[in-house]
Amino acid sequence: MEEAPQREAPTGRMSPSGLPPSTDDTTTTTTTTTSTTSTTTTTTTATTTTTAVASPPSTPTLIDSAQFHIHSPSSTGFFLSSNPSLVPDRRPARGHEGAFVHPASFLRPRGLSHPMPPAQPERAIDREERRALRAIRNFLKVRTSYDVLPLSFRLIIFDTSLSVKESLNILIQNGIVSAPLWDSKSSTFAGLLTTSDYINVIQYYFQNPAALNQIDQFRLDSLREVEKALGVAPPETISIDPERPLYEACRRMLESRARRIPLVTHDSQTDRALVLSVVTQYRILKFVAVNVSDTQKLRKPLGELLLGSYHNLATASMDTPVIDVIHILVERSISSVPILNSEGVVYNVFEAVDVITLIKGGVYDDLSLTVGEALKKRSPDFPGIYTCSLNDGLDTIFDTIRKSRVHRLVVVDDNFRLKGVLTLSDILQYILLEGETDEFS
């Protein structure tokens, strides 16, 4: 079979300032497209009522169906009898005599006189997609979470007695956005500190400005109190043993809606928990993109898969106050908000990690600045945003993930107008769950 030509991943990276590239500019932006198909299985349970008739014990006897005849004396019912004297005459009906009705007439379903249309043959692109997904899942099932880790890495763990301000400075100095928490009093793993925790702190002090003077004494072990005050559900503390299959780690992240999962093992001598590292969705998908060549067979366009979010999207403009965007992030439980102009053209994306940059000086209450002003505070080496179209397939998206650090893709049309948002969670869910019911058929 002749192999289909490889499609180049569209490019077109947005500038840190937020303006889309002009048509005569030679700078390009990495554009990738992803599509997803959602399969919903509805199970209908039929209830059967059985009436038991008491009879003396005897040896079961097979009953010949010819001994039973159905007589319909009226239009309102029928009776069943094995007494030959009650069997109606089978001679042709005369006058008002009821015609003999064969029992099979009552068993023949109605409304099914038309034959079912033949099943459509599977398309080659569907067959290749299904085989590629199976190959990826098999790969994830034989690899462990430990295999994803690089040969050399650094792990920073925060003690829960650390202040929020100190933890923020450490994150910024080391260029990270999350860290495992450790309770030294009980010598136990205490969860994961993420940007969502800092956003909750911002909301808390925005609603309680009188408590702002105590921010320097606010410690990480008090984060649960902030969540209770805001009515926010505490994040689920999930972890996995590094020797467990990578497939299991992915399923746990999807079930808890977490974007990263700590690898926690136990000391053989003391049986105490040991935090080994943290695995993110991006690291897992890049691991797949680098090691599984079958990702190049995922050629079904996003427009067919409808992978991602395309309706009721949360958006903002350059003039929107940052605090309003923060409220949107919390209410929608999302990690980014596309920034559009009046015509719906994508200018930029405000991400949850941008909040850390804004409050790195300890300013939690002065968030009345606009999104445009906030985006100017980004690092000069900010890579921009990644876009894709509905005509792109996951093959080009995996190619982009393999080459660049991508956390989401904005789906746009030819005029750069917003169509949808594709997250790494969407991609991970697709490669793990799409068509899973027929996996062993």
UniProtKB/TrEMBL annotation:
Annotated GO MF terms: AMP binding; kinase activity; protein kinase binding; protein kinase regulator activity
InterPro entries: AMPK_gamma/SDS23_families (IPR050511), CBS_dom (IPR000644), CBS_dom_sf (IPR046342)
Compositionally biased spans, kind Low complexity: 20-56
Domain CBS: 233-295, 307-367, 378-439
Gene3D superfamilies, alphabetized: CBS-domain
Protein origin, superkingdom: Eukaryota
Entries under CDD domains matching the protein: CBS_euAMPK_gamma-like_repeat1, CBS_euAMPK_gamma-like_repeat2
SUPFAM superfamilies per the UniProt record, alphabetical: CBS-domain pair (SSF54631)
Keyword Repeat: yes
Stored Pfam families: CBS
Keywords, alphabetical: CBS domain, Kinase, Repeat, Transferase
GO CC list: cytoplasm; nucleotide-activated protein kinase complex; nucleus
Renumbered residue ranges of the record's region Disordered: 1-64
Secreted as UniProt keyword: no
Family stated for the protein in its record: Belongs to the 5'-AMP-activated protein kinase gamma subunit family.
Protein name in UniProt: Gamma subunit of 5'-AMP-activated protein kinase
High-level lineage: Eukaryota, Fungi, Dikarya, Ascomycota, Pezizomycotina
